[in-house]
Amino acid sequence: MKRETIALGLALVTAAGCGMAQQRPAAPEVDSAKVAAYSVLVEALHSGQPPLQKLAIEGFLESDAPPPRDALEPLADGPDPRVRAMAVTLLGTMRQPVLVPLLQRKSLDADPAVRLAAAFGLAMAGDASQVMALRDALASPDVTLRRTAAWLLGLMNNPTAVGMLRLKLDDPDAVVVLRTAEALGRLGSHDGLEAVRILVEYERHEIRWAATRLLGRIGTTADIPRLEKLCQSRFLDVKFAAIAAIAMLGDFKRIGMLMDLVDAPEAEVRVLAAWELGGTGYTPAIERLARLMARPDATERAAGATAILRIQSTRQPWRARILADQPTPEGPLPQPAGPANTPKKP
Question: Assuming Cys at both sites, which of 92, 229, 230, 303 could form a disulfide with 271, CB separation 3.0 to 4.6 Å?
Fold first, then answer.
């Protein structure tokens, strides 16, 4: 993030009052916000812009509302290998037999991460032999494959992977350790917690940021003092992540500051605040986040939409600890109208 953005964000943080409790707004109409957010992210999938497509796929991966297949399948053959890998991963989470031919074809993709994502999808569809590809990748000398394999094993939601993942908590790559701890957390194990506590003090600030975000998911209330110190970081992403992590652990005294920064004058600050709010499960933030979806910039719209879908998702494993005012409704999400957004029939 640019230095001027950080300086502006820190000034806004100071003005907002870092330690002051904020009054909760009235609960918004969450149904309409969720449908609008869904439509924004489907539009991002059709944008032809890899950063937007990647952001939308990340949002769908963390939500309980999968996109229409016809909006996602073309991305599995797109030019950007990162988008291809994420699209194939999201298709794999759908567990639909009709997708097996596509996944088999992507197992021959030129990019090894895409091939690994295809193995994940085939394993999710019932081909247990594909798990061996993930196991082998976890021990690969290629650090990118180790990172990807750890992440995918966590998405499988199969507790039998815990044993092989534990071995990677001593990996020399900090990102592999973080992905492993995240995967273990998804599988109900806290074996990676101590490693994450160490990594929040790592010398590289991007590692501190990722570890801080993860600590909110898998940590305990005993970690709040550690996170309070990180609220003083000179890096805006770490500071915002610490505030959100504290909220994930049930302490909302600073979350009003993040909500206020969704309306900050600097676009980068607005996007970053929205991104961190998305992890909190704090439903009163939806009204503020919906404002981003009305902005002309596509990245801001996608950031607001992603945050809304993540807040309302029943897949958030730490959601049960959140003390926001009312639960979100269950049930299938209505699909937006239009032929471009109509799912294919199996």
Answer: 303
